[in-house]
From TrEMBL:
One of its GO terms (cellular component) is cell outer membrane. This is RagB/SusD family nutrient uptake outer membrane protein. It is found in: Cell outer membrane. Belongs to the SusD family. Keywords: Cell outer membrane, Membrane, Signal. It comes from the Bacteria. SUPFAM superfamilies: TPR-like.
Length: 510
């Protein structure tokens, strides 16, 4: 691991002005620690730089942030083209030399280092305690977020909570200690952050910290910790967000993916194409290679769902808004399009795609009508929602049921809110705790289909790979015989990080 704390490059600092995100150049965002924390604007610039580290293209701004999550059934990729990095993990065959895996490792670490910088220095600023605490609270939240993705993706990782020397080579800490550090940071974030930042979208608030903490506790109930006592803690944290009344599901499902900062957005990374920070996992990335717009732009075929994942989806309006099943093939005149089904032999992949990631922000990704495509763009201004309110409702539903030994009226109410917005009837009553949990996991799979590891992490904590692979269509990228599924729940540490840290032991199977 590269333990140099100062960042290698001067990144654009993200400044929230008048409730909107804009990007201006501010070198204070990445200076050496201790040299610039004098004013509140200095502190704000450094906090903004943490968000940049997570959101940039080499971290979570592009599809490679999900490279090792392609083992999930809501993700697959082209059998050819330049998709080898994704395809290997889709086949449960990825290795430590995979170039795209670096974004999953390095992106969170860069954010963690910058957060450490803020936490170490924020008290030195000449400002009010309220403003300083709000800045520190965001840093604690973001550091916890980074570690949460690292520990679930790679297992044991070093816990680095202070500034360290470039030559230090800390050991990997056990998973339970990493989770303890995450919980500590989120508890601190809860103390320091306000319930909301009015008219300032993109800033992590107390409800974001509570929501993430609920998710953390739920993850701890499953593999590898299996701490079932955390079900109640997960339910309590989720319930606190529900009782706040800040969020709701009043925004139609499809609209959530074509507008920014909807009524259910609890925390999301903000993007700005003109400012040099585009989201590139919407638009072209999720569009078929077969589709060519009238202006000559085409899809990239990076990711789409597995066939049986699509076929097993519930029949509802949410499913209609989620999946793209009619492919538009441009005709020789360059102006008209032939509409064919996803499984038509005229398509090279023979798969459905994701509709909800096509448009970007009101069509800045794919600009189209029902029968034509005008342009397909790879860079969008769409916010990437890391935490949406339906996740809180489903965490509460599952956790409250498992904590009580069976679903309560409140458990059913939580999942049924999600189902109602999806266009589904209420869930059947009288289910056992396990059957209810499985219903929630199924609901989460389709509510969050294709969204940044949500499905994969359910597969990991519940050890579902054997079932997922057994249900896989023969048309998918083949998984080698005798694959040891138990060794595929963690990704390998990137080879360059292993070479920098000779005292580390690589994850099993790699």
């Amino acid at each position: 691991m590269n333990t140099k704390y100062s960042l290698f490059l001067v990144f654009l600092a993200l400044i929230l002005v008048s409730g909107c995100q804009s990007l201006i150049e501010d070198p204070k965002g990445s200076l050496t620690p201790g040299t610039y924390f004098k004013t509140q604007s200095d502190l704000d610039a450094s906090v903004a730089a943490i968000y940049i580290q997570f959101a940039r293209d080499g971290a979570w701004g592009f599809t490679n942030r999900s490279t090792s999550y392609f083992g999930s059934d809501d993700f697959t990729t082209d059998p050819g083209l330049n998709k080898e990095d994704f395809r290997l993990f889709d086949r449960l065959s990825g290795g430590s030399g995979n170039g795209s895996l670096v974004a999953q490792w390095q992106g969170p670490w860069q954010g963690i280092y910058q957060a450490n910088n803020v936490i170490a220095n924020y008290t030195k600023v000449g400002s009010t305690d309220v403003l300083k605490n709000q800045a520190a609270g965001q840093a604690y939240f973001l550091r916890a977020l980074g570690y949460y993705y690292l520990v679930r993706t790679f297992g044991p990782v070093p816990i680095i909570l202070t500034q360290i020397d470039v030559n230090d080579r800390p050991p990997r800490d056990p998973v339970d200690k990493v989770y303890a550090a995450i919980i500590s940071d989120l508890q601190k974030a809860k103390e320091l952050l306000p319930i909301s930042f009015p008219n300032q979208p993109g800033k992590a608030n107390q409800m974001a910290a509570r929501s993430l903490l609920a998710d953390v506790y739920l993850s701890m109930t499953g593999w590898p910790l299996n701490q079932e006592s955390n079900y109640k803690l997960a339910a309590d944290e989720a319930n606190s967000v529900m009782q706040s009344g800040v969020y709701n599901l009043n925004t139609p499902y499809a609209t959530v993916f074509t507008t920014n900062n909807s009524s259910e957005s609890i925390f999301g990374f903000q993007y700005n194409v003109s400012g040099g920070l585009p989201l590139r996992s919407a638009g072209s990335s999720s569009v078929p290679l077969d589709e060519i717009a009238t202006n000559g732009s085409s899809g990239w075929d990076d990711y789409y769902p597995e066939i049986n994942f699509y076929k097993n989806a519930p029949k509802c309006s949410r499913t209609d808004a989620t999946f793209y099943t009619t492919i538009k093939l441009r005709q020789p005149d360059g102006k008209t399009f032939k509409l064919v089904s996803w499984d038509s032999p005229e398509t090279h992949a023979g798969h459905p795609y994701y509709k909800k990631f096509r448009a970007g922000l009101n069509g800045d990704g794919v600009s189209e009508t029902e029968t034509t495509i005008d342009a397909i763009n790879p860079s969008t201004n769409k916010v990437y929602d890391v935490i949406r309110y339906p996740q809180v409702l489903l965490i509460y539903a599952e956790a409250s049921a498992m904590a009580a030994g069976g679903p309560t009226t409140a458990s059913y109410s939580a999942i049924n809110q999600v189902r109602k917005r999806a266009g589904l009837p209420d869930l059947t009553t009288g289910l056992s705790a396990t059957a209810f949990r499985d219903a929630v996991v199924y609901e989460r799979a389709y509510e969050f289909a294709g969204e940044f590891g949500v499905r994969w992490f359910d597969i990991v904590r519940l050890q579902l790979l054997p079932q997922i692979v057994a249900a896989r269509s023969s048309a998918e990228n083949p998984i080698p015989a005798n694959t040891n599924f138990a060794q595929k729940y963690l990704a390998p540490i990137p080879v360059n990080e292993m070479s920098r840290n000779p005292g580390w032991t690589q994850n099993d199977g790699y």
